Structure formats: structure tokens, C-alpha cells
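Q: Got a minute? One more chain.
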Amino acid sequence: MQYAELKISFCEKRKVLKIMMKKSRPALIIIILSVLVAIPLFLLLFLPQLRNFRADSPPFPEMLEYCGESYSARDFIVGCIMHNMTVLSEPPTEKQQAGINSAACCIKNSVTYLISKDQLSRKSFPAIYFMDCTEASLYFGNDYPYYLESAEKAADYALSKPQNSLFMPVCPLSSGMLIAPESVDIPHIKKLYCGKDKYNDFYEGECQLTETGIAEKLLSAFPTLIIPPVEKSMITDIKTDENGNVLSLKCCDINMSGYQFIRLFDIPSVNFKMSRSQNLYSFKTKGVGDSTGMSFYSALMLSESGMTAEEITEMFF
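A: Always. Here it is, folded:
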């Protein structure tokens, strides 16, 4: 009796299941058809974007324009590396090549970023430092071929690596402070230097500007500017951070950032103190460069310790 009841119960359940399947079949068919239609539509709309997302950046240009001149990508990266090599008193060694390779990759990334913003030739921060081959050959003299060989190796290394669109600045010798990412709006930067910068012969420097020289530079940049009377200081309202980096100032009542100022007047670093004696302005500087990103000198020191190019980059970014 119990067996018969169980059999009837089982049969009833099968009947109910068949009825439910019949009722749900149209809905199931509709869901399957919707999915089949949605898949190609999704691929059509989003596949190009997915490809772009996966790519690090657009292909690096073979030729580029900088300050009105055309350069091949390789020659331009070489020139940027050569500018940073001015911090060296002798040609780089083989042990230092990893540091130079790392700097070359960062320079290439910065070039990619500035090209995307149409700002490669700008003089204010963010910017690229460059030295053409004629200037470099005069600066390095008989040792020029050795510097050039190392820079070309680094350029070839960088061009063989994928680039991205991050601005990754390289300074010949940083001003030697840690930096808060929010202070320069470049959150991927970790630090500026490795301590040894402070003991380099190039770390502290001094330069001077006359009032006439300041006026000439200003008028070349601002042709309609009216130069104030000589009795008044041409440079005022200097504001610095806790480490001595000049954040902003006024030059003949024109508001400038520290980066704009040093680029306009060829002052080595934004970490400076100014003094004035009659018509002469003196600047005591620390470091060389924009005070942001990789210290080239420190990268070489890390390279000598056995670190790879990738490990060195990781130290700074």
C-alpha cells in the first residue's frame, strides 16, 4: 500500500514537472535568443574599447617635433639622456648602464604623455630636458663618443619596451626631498632621490642674474610687459614648501610657479634661495632639475649596486 502511494506521488511530481517545463519553455527560448543577439552586439560595441584598454598607449612616433625642429624618436631620446649625463664628470661605466636604461624608459613614457597633451615643446612643468648632438659634442669634448654609445644603447633598450602614457620625469640630480604625490598631481611618483645626491659635487650651486638680463628674458616671453622702476625688486612674494622648493613667486608682478621661473631664467633647480645686491640677483641652488621624479645620478648609484632597470624604476615610480 505504501509502495503504491509512493508510486502515485512520484508520478504526480513528474506530471507537475512536465507542465512547468512546458510553461517555462517559451521564456527559456526568449532568454537564449536574447543572449545570442546580445553577444555580437556587445563585441561590436565594446571590443575596440577593450583593445584600447589593453594597449599601454598608442605606438611611439618615428619622428617628433620639439621646439620647431624635427628629430627621430631614437635621436630625441638620446638627446634627453645626454642632457642628464651632464651630471657626470666622466663617461658612464658598464655597471651604470641599467640606471641609464631605466631613465631612458621613463623619458620615453614622459614623451608619450606630453605628445598626447600636445605639450612636448613647453618650457614650464611638466617638461622634457633635451641636448642636441652639436651641443653635446661641445660639452663632452673628446669623451663624447663614450657618452653617445651609452645613450644610444639606452635609447634602443627603451624603444624595445612597451610605453605608457604616464609622465615619469627624470632630473639629472634631484633636490633631495621626499615628495607628497598630491603636491604635484602625479600620484604614481614615490620619491625623488636616494640620499647620495646630497654628497655629489654638483648638488649645491650658485648662479646670478642682472636686472638687465631679467628684463630681456621677460620681454622675450612677454613682449607687452612694462618693466617696473629699478628701485623696486623685480622678484617678490617667494613662497616655498617646508623643504625649500619654490612653489610660486612674482617676477615684475607676473605670477609664476617655481618651475616656470627656473625654465625661463635657466636656474638649475626650484630649490633655491635668492639674495639681491643693487642690480644683481644671486641664487644658491640645491640639486639640478624640476625636483620631481627620478634622480639620474641616484639611478646610476642603484645600478652600480646590481639593481636591474626595472627594479630601479620601481624605486621612483
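A: The first strand starts at residue 63 and ends at 66.
Q: Perfect, thanks.
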